[in-house]
Amino acid sequence: MITTLHIKNIGIIDDISIDLNNGLNVLTGETGAGKTLIIDSLSILCGERFSKEMIRHGEESSFVEACLYLPNNPSNMDGNIIISREIWNNGRNLCKINGRMVTVNELRDFMINIIDIHGQHDNQTLMNSATHLELLDAFAGAKITDYKLKYRETYAKYLEVKSALKENYGDDKEKQRRLDLLKYQAKEITDAKLKIGEDDELQAQKEKIANTQKIAENLQIANNQIDEVSIDAISSAIRALEKIEEFDANYSKSLNELKNIYYELQETGRDISGYAEETSFNDEKIEEIEERLDIIFSLKRKYGNSIQEILEYKNETEKEIERIENLEEYISNLKKQCKSFEEEMNEIGKKMHDVRKESSKILENKINEQLKDLEMRNAKFEVSIVWKEGDYRREGLDFVEFLISTNIGDAPKPLIKIASGGEMSRIMLAIKTVLADVDEVPVLVFDEIDTGISGAAANAVADKLTRISKKHQVICVTHLASITAKGEHNYLIGKQVQGNKTVTEIRQLTEEETIKEIARIASGVITEITLKHAKELRKNMK
After folding, report:
1. How confident is the model over 234-240, as a mean pLDDT?
2. What CA–CA distance (Å, rounded) separates 183 from 346?
C-alpha cells in the first residue's frame, strides 16, 4: 500500500503530502482543484510519459515521491520502499527505488506490479492482452498449477534442444570449412607436444643464459679464492697446529675443527667448480630455447593464456571435430528429442487448454453478473482462447484475450478498443471485483469512474469499490455522493490563492466534515435538509 504521497511543482500543486490508509480512500473536491493532478502524479511515479508543461510555472523541476509498505517484498526486510521521480525542464529524469538510481523503464517494470491506475483513458495491466492469460490462470488456481509446472519444465528442455539444433554449422561447405580449421588447430597444438610448466622452465633458462658471462666470472672468482687462498691458508694453519697439539688438549680440539672446515671447503669448491662448467652454453642451445618459446607464445596468442588453457582448447576442439564428423547422427538425435518434447507439451498443453476453457466460462458468468449490477445489462464479456498449434511458449499454446460487446448485436471486441470512458471504467470495475481475490497488484486507483452513471448504477459502483478495498488499497477520485459515503478515509482537495499564485491543498476529513462534503456533492448546497440526507446516506452505505 501507499502510506505517504509527496508531490511538488505539478500543475497548480505547490508542495503537498498525503498520508493514505488501507481500504477505500476517497478524494473529492471542486472541479479544477487538482484531483486529476494527483492521479497524474501517481502515473508519473509509475514511469508513464511526462510533459514538461506539467511542471509548475516558474519552477525548474517537479518531484513525486511515495512511501510504499510491501510486507511480502523479499528485497526489503521491513517492507518499506521509497520510490521517487524528479523531472527537469530540460527533459532530464532522475528515478530512484530505495535511493538507488534506476531507468524510467526499470521504474515502470517495478511499479506495474504495485499500482494499477484506471480512469477514463488510463490503465496499466487489464488493457494489455499479455496479462489476460495470467489472470485467467490465477482465477483457475490449483486446477492448472501442476500442469503449468510440468509444462514449463518440458519447455525449458525443449529450448535447450532447439538452441543446439541451431548450431548445425550451416551448409556442407560451411561445415567442411569449420572441420578443416578445427583439424588444423588440433594438429598444430598436438605437434607442439606441450608440457605444463615448460614455458616457465624455458624462461628461467633464458634468464640464466642472458647472465652467463656475469655468472661465470663470479663463479671463477669464488673458485679461485677457495682453491688458491682459503684452502692453502687453512692447510698452513693445520700443519702449524699439528706441531703443538701434544702440548694441550685445546690445541688438538682446534686442529680437528679446522680439519672439518678444510674438508667442507673442499666440497663447496667442487660444487662451485661444477656450476662454472654448467654455465658454458653454446649458441645452438640458446637458439633452441628461443625457437621453443616462440612456438609456445604463438599458441598462447591463438588458443589461451597458458599451456593449460591451450590443452583444454585442444580437448574441446577434438570433441567438436567428433561432433561434426557424426553430425547427421547428432542432429537426428536432437530432432527426436525435440519431437518428444513437442508431443509432451501438446499433451500437457491440451489439459491446460481444457482447464482454461472450463474456468473461462465461470469467469464470463461472474463478470457478466457484475456488469448487470453496474447497469450494463446489454454488455457481454467473453474470454477468447485460441489454441495455436506449434506455437510453443512458456505458458502453453493458448492465446487468451478478454473481449466485450456493450450493445446488443455488436461483435465482441478487445477491451482496448472500447470507446466510451464510462463503460470502460465499469468494465474494469466488474473485472476487478471478480478478480480481486487473485489479483496481486496491491494498489488500485480509480479516476472518476462514476462518469455518466447515477442512481442504482452509482450505488452498485460504490458497493464494488468497497468489496475490492477488502483485498486491496483503493484510491478513488469521485463526484458521486454514494461513493463518498462509502469512503473509509475521505480527503478534500481544494485550491486557494496565495499572493499571486494558486495552490492546491488537501486534508483528511473528520466524520462531521465528511457528512458536509456528501451534502455538498449530493445537492450543491449545505442545509439542514441536505445534511440530514447525507447522514442517512452515510449510515446506509456504511
Report:
1. 83
2. 42
Compute the distance between CA of residue 531 and CA of residue 340 in angstroms, rounded to an integer. 73
Neighbours of 533 (CB within 10 A): 17
**Residue range of the domain that includes 219:** 172-325
Confidence of residue 475 (pLDDT cuts 50, 70, 90): very high
- HSE at residue 316, side-chain half, CA atoms within 13 A, is 8
- Strand order of the β-sheet with 398-405 is 380-387, 398-405, 413-414
Considering the domain boundaries, does residue 166 fall inside one? no
The pTM (predicted TM-score) of the whole model is: 0.60
> Residue 427: which of 405, 454, 459, 401 has the closest Cα?
405
Nearest to 45 by CA among 99, 100, 97, 123: 97
Give me the sign of the Cα torsion angle 139, 141, 147, 153: positive
φ, ψ for residue 508, nearest 5 deg: -80, 135
Q: C-alpha grid cell for residue 147?
A: 500442469
Q: Quote the pLDDT of residue 122.
A: 45
Residue 230 within any structural domain of the chain:
yes
Number of domains in the chain: 1
What's the mean pLDDT when you consider all of the chain?
A: 85
Q: Which of 52, 26, 24, 21 is nearest to 38 (CA)?
A: 26
SS3 assignment for 355-421:
HHHHHHHHHHHHHHHHHHHCCCCCCEEEEEEEECCCCCECCECEEEEEEEECCCCCCCEEHHHCCCH
Residue reference for cell 640458446: 286
42-72 pLDDT, tens digit each: 989 998 888 888 888 888 899 999 999 988 7
Q: Are 95 and 107 in contact (CB under 8 A)?
A: yes
What is the C-alpha separation between 513 and 517, in angstroms, rounded?
6
221 in a domain, yes or no?
A: yes
Strand runs labelled E in 98-201: 100-102, 115-118
Which has the closest alpha carbon to 443: 25, 16, 15, 7?
25
Cβ atoms of 20 and 4 within 8 Å: the answer is yes
Beta pairing class for 473-477 and 80-88: unpaired
Q: How confident is the model at residue 451 (pLDDT cuts 50, 70, 90)?
A: low
Report yes or no on 206 lying in a domain.
yes
Judged against a pLDDT cut of 60, whether residue 329 lies above it is answered with yes
pLDDT higher than 90, residue 144: yes
Inter-residue contact 70 to 79 (CB < 8 Å): yes
In terms of Cα–Cα distance, which of 476, 495, 488, 490 is closest to 519? Answer: 490
